[in-house]
């Protein structure tokens, strides 16, 4: 299948905008992007895109997708009360059916706000894999692992998920190994996770230093930081995606830098749960890869990556008392290329020949997008989710003119109503 996008503006690597040009897609990859369409390129489908910006799809590097069913269910509690007293008890009553429909609702929300790839952590993971496969979005999924009597069962589930789904859906699904956090694991269970990831060459997806209490408790129990403990048991011998990292010290940063680990910055969730603000300028200056995530909808309360770019930008300026530290090109890179790099997918997250065709078309016609002195600034500080018009993943159209192509949205809402009645 060959597609041609014509007459659009294109956001290229290196902060360049190419206006009034053509982009060809051959199979799941970008064939060319140029002012002229090669004469021998015979497109099966032509997308007329005058007045649209073509850019890489957004990559959400930390979420818990099925938490859509818990949106606005438990707001206004401190982190540990929120997690252990409010969220975990209701999660104990969730099942595969509820997880599947909640995941579909989340994928619909992500596509409608321009996300083409996400890094997830949730149980009943095979139901999430099914939703990902059906909707043709790209995702890294995982079964979160915690210590306790259930450990062997959960660890077996994680192993089964790897065997069954790593590389599935034409390579659009990858699987990571996910020790939930230091405070829900022991050094022994963390070590087992590190070894499992090493055996299969997989990413580790975890939470690190989300709260001051997490750091203080870890220090009291083990005499080291969460990063230090994970380093001691071999976690950082793998590619690590660590959500939050609100409180990393210099030694922690050094471990991140040396191992090539990624900080998945979740500014909305950190603010909303009262956990603070991650000093990402410091991390960026230290050469650490920083990507963006929404976290679950129980602590955000949406999956809109444009909003995360906006907020991350405002926080950078405000916390550092300097508007010059926030470049829109950097924010866009955090939401695209850095997210691909976090997962070790080199040919994703930019508009260039040979790269995977994960592309979104953003309308430049709306009042809040005029004029365009700087398209990148408009994108970070003016764009709305509803401006995302068309979404393509791996060369396949998942949304066209706001119409979802791989999701029966009416059915999802009807099934969600049934699931909500059952759960609450
Ligand atoms: Zn999380």
Written description of the protein model:
With 424 residues, this protein is of the alpha/beta class. 38% of the residues lie in helices and 23% in strands. It has helices at residues 79-91, 96-112, 125-135, 151-165, 187-200, 212-222, 226-232, 250-259, 267-272, 280-285, 305-319, 328-335, 337-342, 375-381, 409-423; strands at 2-12, 16-26, 29-34, 45-48, 52-56, 58-63, 115-120, 138-141, 144-145, 173-175, 178-179, 204-208, 240-244, 262-265, 289-292, 359-363, 388-393, 396-400, 403-404. α2 (96-112) packs across α3 (125-135), α2 packs across α15 (409-423) and α4 runs parallel beside α5. The longest helix has 17 residues, at 96-112. It is globular and about 65 Å long. The protein starts with a strand and ends with a helix. The structure holds zinc ion (ZN). Zinc ion is lined by residues 62, 64, 207, 243, 295.
């Amino acid at each position: 299948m060959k597609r041609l996008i014509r007459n659009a503006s294109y956001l290229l690597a290196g902060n360049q905008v190419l206006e009034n040009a053509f982009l060809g897609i051959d199979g799941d990859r970008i064939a060319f992007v140029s002012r002229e369409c090669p004469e021998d390129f015979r497109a099966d489908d032509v997308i007329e895109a005058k007045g649209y910006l073509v850019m890489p799809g957004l990559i959400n590097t930390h979420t818990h997708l099925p938490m859509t069913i818990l949106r606005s269910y438990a707001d206004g509690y401190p982190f540990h009360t929120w997690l252990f007293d409010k969220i975990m008890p209701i999660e104990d009553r969730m099942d595969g059916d509820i997880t599947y429909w909640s995941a579909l609702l989340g994928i619909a929300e992500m596509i409608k706000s321009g996300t083409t790839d996400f890094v997830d952590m949730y149980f009943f993971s095979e139901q999430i894999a099914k939703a990902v496969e059906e909707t043709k979005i790209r995702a890294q999924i995982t079964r979160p692992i915690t210590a306790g009597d259930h450990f062997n069962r959960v660890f077996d589930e994680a192993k089964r998920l790897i065997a069954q789904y790593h590389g599935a859906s034409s390579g659009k699904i990858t699987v990571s190994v996910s020790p939930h956090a230091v405070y829900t694991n022991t050094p022994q269970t963390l070590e087992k996770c590190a070894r499992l990831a090493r055996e299969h060459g997989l990413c580790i997806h975890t939470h690190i230093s989300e709260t001051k209490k997490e750091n203080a408790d870890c220090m009291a129990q083990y005499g080291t930081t969460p990063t230090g403990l994970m380093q001691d048991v071999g976690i950082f011998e793998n590619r690590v995606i660590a959500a939050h990292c609100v409180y990393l010290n210099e030694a922690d940063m050094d471990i991140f830098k040396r191992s090539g680990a990624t900080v998945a910055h979740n500014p909305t969730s950190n603010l909303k749960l009262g956990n603070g603000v991650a000093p990402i300028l410091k991390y960026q200056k230290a050469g650490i890869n920083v990507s963006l995530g929404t976290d679950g909808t129980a602590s955000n309360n949406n999956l809109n990556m444009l909003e995360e770019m906006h907020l991350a930008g405002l926080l950078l300026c405000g916390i550092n008392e300097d508007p010059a530290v926030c470049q829109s090109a950097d924010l866009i890179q955090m939401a695209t290329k850095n997210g691909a790099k976090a997962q070790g997918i080199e040919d994703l997250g930019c508009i260039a020949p040979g790269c995977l065709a994960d592309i979104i078309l953003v309308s430049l016609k709306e009042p809040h997008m005029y004029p365009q002195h700087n398209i990148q600034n408009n994108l970070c500080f003016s764009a709305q989710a509803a401006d995302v018009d068309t979404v393509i993943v791996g060369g396949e159209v998942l949304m066209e003119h706001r119409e979802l192509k791989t999701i029966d949205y009416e059915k999802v809402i009807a099934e969600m109503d049934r699931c909500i009645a059952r759960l609450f």
